[in-house]
Specification:
- The chain has 53 residues and is mostly beta strands.
- It has one domain (2-48).
- Helices cover 0% and strands 49% of the residues.
- Strands 1-2-3 form a three-stranded antiparallel sheet, with no helix packed on it.
- The model has no long low-confidence stretch (mean pLDDT 80).
Length: 53
């Protein structure tokens, strides 16, 4: 499991977010349009498994 630390910001408010014991669920990491012209995006889902979240 992995631990994450990131900051969430909306307008002038900013919040520190920590989550512990995350298990990744990998899928569609190379889901790129072969015709081109689009922006490549990657999404990584995860499950928080630690009660310390």
């Amino acid at each position: 499991p992995l631990d994450f630390l990131f900051y969430a910001k909306a307008g002038s408010e900013e919040m520190k977010v920590e989550s512990f014991g995350n298990k990744l669920q990998l899928s569609n990491l190379l889901d790129i349009d072969p015709k081109g012209g689009g922006v490549a995006t990657h999404k990584i889902k995860y499950f928080v498994t630690s009660p310390k979240f």
